[in-house]
Design a protein that fits this description.
alpha/beta; GMP Synthetase, Chain A, domain 3; 3 domains; about 30% helix; about 25% strand; globular
Length: about 525
Amino acid sequence: MGDKIQRGPKLKHSINSSMGEFFFKCAERFSDRICQIDASSDTKETYQSVKKRSVRVALELLNRGVTSDDVVVLCTKITLDNVIPIISTFFIGAKIANLDPTLSARHTTHLLTLVSPKIIFVEEESVSLIEDSLKCANLTADIVVFGKSLKYPTFDHFAKPKPNENTFEPRKVNISDTSIIFFSSGTTGLPKAICHSHSSFLHVAHAFHQSGGNCDSILSFTSFYWVSGLILLSTSFISGGHRIFCGPIDAEKTFQVIEKYKVTFMFLAPILTYKLTNFEKHQNYDTSSLSSMLVGGTPISTAQFQRLTTVFKHTNVVFVYGLTEAGIVTLFDPKDDHDLIKTQSGSCGKAAPGMEIKVVDIETGLPLGPKLKGEVRVKSPTLMKGYYKAESSSAFDSDGFLETGDIGYYNEKGCFYVIERLKEMFKYLSWHVVPSAIEAVLLEHPAIKEAVVFGIPQSEEEGELPAACVVLKENCNVNKQQIEEFVAGRVSDYEKLRGGVFFAEALQKTPSGKLMRKEIKNAIMKTL
């Protein structure tokens, strides 16, 4: 079995500090350097300032009785302020969990129920969302507002100067204790609260830094609701670089920011890349500073990947595979794998530092050799502790490997191809249908802007008929039959859209751009 396990390079860094100690020491080391930049206002903040404000908020949290047993929650868009309560929580050894303000009240209610927070930092515009969600969850929590409030204390009050702030030291904690709680994306069911310890997440950050490329100037569009947001934050602290943000992604603004701030690194969800490749004036901007662009979170078509490499001709565009439960699982090292990036089209890379990966037969659980499709399973120091206050043993196999629920394979060069979620696959006449493969074909149609594929249940013998729901581009006109014929000419017989084509003005997505396949399918089924 050993020769069927793919192993990444050894981790170069041993972890012996807490998240609080890590951020504190890095901020001291790089005190005069720029830590973060709001490109919308060209406002900059140094590491020294971030540390000072975080210490003040940490002392206020302690004054209000927050302990290492408590959960602090954040719900805000990306600003210069929103990182401060996160680092403050690390400083006092409490647990941090992040929400996204674009989530629905129903979704937010469920997430709050999972973690029962002691205190919630919330942007002014989302106070009512938190109030309603707490009420529905039958929970009470202290609310702190970014902005103005006559009803609740404000962040500015928390960040006022404090006595003894100059002698503050991060609280000592067990580095195996939970430090961060993330929420699974919920694309195949109700989200779970995923716990990372101080140790596991610092392993995630250092593994990423070891092979993520030049992270001196990071452009980030990711809120801290997603694991990638905190990976990029931690990576910037390791290198003493700066993190840049500029609000929701806009093509022209993105190119302007890359040129102005000499951005060296970006991370994007595949769906966001289309805005950049569709921007006709990209040649007017200098993007030569951008050494690496990582793309991940969902599959990306080969054609779109090639468009990215054409638009960003100076950049190593790298498709990565990662999990909230494990951090980055596979990627190509932009420094060492340049030839593989060019030749292994569609691959999400090789095993990341510290990562062990096996692909197993879906039915038997036995490890498979090269080019055989099965479930991807991983083991690493970066693995989560488990689910918050919930049984987690079923997430791991008998050898301690995390069962990812993702279907993929690797080749003789150790390059991985992850093609679908196990739960999103369905069968038609005993054939496994991979929705993302058909979606990639649909997105090649010149009239289609977005597409999602799912199965419509038939008889037990027949299985599910492949069907699609699409959003058309503006001023484009195409009918169902034309789309069905377009797909039929490019896929296997069992992948043809026998379940039909449906049109929508927009498709439901998670805040990171993942299609909410289950919700879309349920809405279509109600119309049949």
